[in-house]
Amino acid sequence: MDLQRVQRAGVVLFSRQGFAATGIRELGAEAGINSATLYHYVGSKESLLASIIRTCLDEMTRSGALALRRSSDPAVQLAGLVSSHVGFTAVNSSTARVAEYEMRGLTGSNLDEMQKMRDDYEALFGHVLERGGRIGLFDVADHALSRLAILEMCTGVAHWYRPGGRLDLLDIQKYFVSAVFRVIAADTDVLEGFDFRDEEVTRLASEPLGDHGSDAGNRL
């Protein structure tokens, strides 16, 4: 029994029915432990939610930073960021949905910490868009709006991706990178030498096995 097992139970229930609608006893039952033992691993339901989101954002930031180190070219960096984000979100769809939609359940210092982590991660995209726009690689009239639009589009993968679908994950990553480049009028020629397989995609230990996308059954 460990924290990852408790986190996995939290991801299952929070993604299925929401943080507010989930009770401590339900979490214990999902994890296979009683409430007293559950409190040994997490001080409260909110602490559990914060730990899930923290783990998610930590890994997203780590993989995003690795993508940036591949090149000093903003176009290559953006391709790496988008590919990494889509890959991570697809493989960790339940956790990604919890991090995206259940942060509203946090309060006080937990909320402040998670919002800063989210902002720091999103800033990786913002800095690349600003730099690429400044040297004429991207046509970006509003950097903040473009950043949010790109992230929202890419995070949507969490709702419909499933392994064994019509397209494999590598094809989906390629499509999304090309789509983002078209949105900002970037030259797609740079993608000819881009190896999408270089982008590391980590499946979190807290991600439930076989749980893929809230609408995965009837989508792509």
Task: Give a structural overview.
- The protein is mainly alpha-helical and 220 residues long.
- The protein has a domain at 53-190: Tetracycline Repressor, domain 2, CATH 1.10.357.
- The protein is built from nine helices and no strands.
- The longest helix is centred in the middle third of the chain and has 27 residues, at 108-134.
- The protein is elongated.
- The two termini are 36 Å apart.
- The relative contact order is 0.16.
- The mean pLDDT is 92.
Number of helices: 9
Q: What general outline do the C-alpha atoms trace?
A: elongated
What gap, in angstroms, lies between the N and C termini?
A: 36 Å
Low-confidence stretches: none
Largest sheet: none
CATH superfamily of the domain at 53-190: Tetracycline Repressor, domain 2
Share in helix: 55-70%
| Beta-strand percent range | under 5%
What is the CA-atom radius of gyration, in angstroms? Answer: 18 Å
Secondary structure topology:
Elements: H1 3-17, H2 24-31, H3 35-41, H4 45-68, H5 74-91, H6 93-101, H7 108-134, H8 143-155, H9 169-183
Helix pairs in contact: 1-2, 1-4, 1-6, 4-5, 4-6, 4-7, 5-7, 5-8, 5-9, 7-8
Write a short abstract of this structure.
The protein is mainly alpha-helical and 220 residues long. 62% of the residues lie in helices and 0% in strands. The chain is elongated.
Characteristic key phrases:
220 residues, mainly alpha, Tetracycline Repressor, domain 2, 9 helices, 0% strand, elongated
